[in-house]
Design brief:
Chitinase A, domain 3, 339 residues, alpha+beta, four-stranded antiparallel β-sheet, four-stranded mixed β-sheet, 50% helix, 10 helices, 3 domains
């Protein structure tokens, strides 16, 4: 367990001045009910991680998307309070881990160039966007600008380099490991399922209130009912979808099952050609996926499957070793959680 000390929570208040001794804190401007009253700059510290702080503002900001999903689940009063408490602890621990890794990145002088960020963004565009404008529009739907997204990509590259240095360089996957996995998972490699998918997206503004979200979801439910009543999914996508693929009837292409993200894999696993998913709430908005067809291609040999198996085993070991490394780092760090 990491070192934790509970210390009294203090409130820092100033009137129109910066508190230099608390550099790094985010400042919230809180107005009073009297329009003539002076604004107050208020924030609280949620945790101290070595020489850095995590502000309550930062913690609350990170919790917002999770709280919105939680609210949609319809918890009772006591259930919601308990769930919010656990969520706060989980998100705070994630922020502590982020601070610790950021500190290690700085200590080890790990850097990333603009060219590396450009290349990463280009790879992302090639996988799912025809133009930069399409990417910008998709980011806008998630309440994010391209510069903000580039900053996030930069952080991901830095953390990948840290993991490579501290963890991955010490891991070796042998040919025997790969062969053993192939034998015990033979059914997965006898044939490859390929899914021909279409989708419909209805976007939701990041500023939408619950009533507006409910209206969008109700519209999607109506579209789904039209499909179940016999309407063509492609026609419905062409008329209603807000995706760049709408003009193609929402056709996304042909995908091997292993190419589909894990969340969607779990949804499609027990469905057949001609099936439609339930309404999915995603960062892009509300979505429906339609399985137009499923085909089987010949299976792969050990030699053909080896790169994929090696990556899978590698990632499993990396995740385990990284958590162990992070736990050791917590033990060596001074972490104070302020309640």
């Amino acid at each position: 367990m990491f070192k934790e000390k509970i210390i009294p929570c203090k409130r820092f208040i100033g009137c129109g001045v910066y508190l230099a001794v608390f550099v790094g804190l985010y400042l919230l401007i809180v107005g009073t009910s009297d329009a003539r009253a002076e604004s107050k700059i208020i924030d609280r510290i949620a945790a101290v991680v070595n020489d850095d702080v995590i502000s309550l503002y930062e913690l609350n900001r990170e919790m917002i998307p999770y709280l919105e999903r939680m609210h949609a689940l319809g918890y009772t009063g006591d259930q919601e309070i308990a769930a919010q408490y656990k969520l706060r602890e989980d998100v705070l621990n994630q922020l502590i881990d982020k601070k610790l890794t950021d500190q290690e990145i700085k200590r080890l002088n790990i850097t990333v160039s603009e060219k590396e960020i450009d290349n990463a963004v280009e790879r992302i565009k090639e996988r799912g966007f025809r133009t930069e404008e399409d990417l910008i529009e998709a980011l806008k739907q998630q309440g994010m600008t391209l510069p903000e997204y580039r900053t996030r990509v930069k952080e991901q590259i830095l953390r990948t380099k840290l993991v490579n240095l501290e963890v991955k360089s010490k891991i070796v996957i042998t040919k025997d490991d790969i062969a053993d996995y192939f034998e015990t998972h033979a059914d997965e490699y006898r044939f490859e399922k390929k899914y021909h998918l279409r989708n419909i997206i209805l976007t939701v503004s990041p500023l939408a209130d619950e009533a507006e979200k409910a209206a969008v979801r109700e519209k999607m439910a109506s579209i789904r009912e039209e499909f179940l009543a016999g309407k063509s999914f492609a026609d419905l996508a062409g008329r209603h979808s807000e995706s760049p693929m709408a003009e193609k009837g929402g056709y996304l292409g042909e995908f091997e099952f292993r190419e589909i993200n894990e969340t969607l894999q779990s949804i499609l696993a027990d469905k057949d050609a001609g099936d439609i998913t339930d309404i999915l709430e995603t960062p892009q908005g509300y979505q429906l996926f339609y399985i137009e067809n499923i085909t089987n291609s010949p299976g792969r040999s050990l030699e053909e499957a080896a790169p994929e198996i090696e990556e899978k085993l590698y990632n499993e070991v990396v995740n385990k070793e990284f958590q162990s490394w992070l736990s050791d780092l917590r033990e060596k760090s001074l972490i104070k959680i302020i309640r």
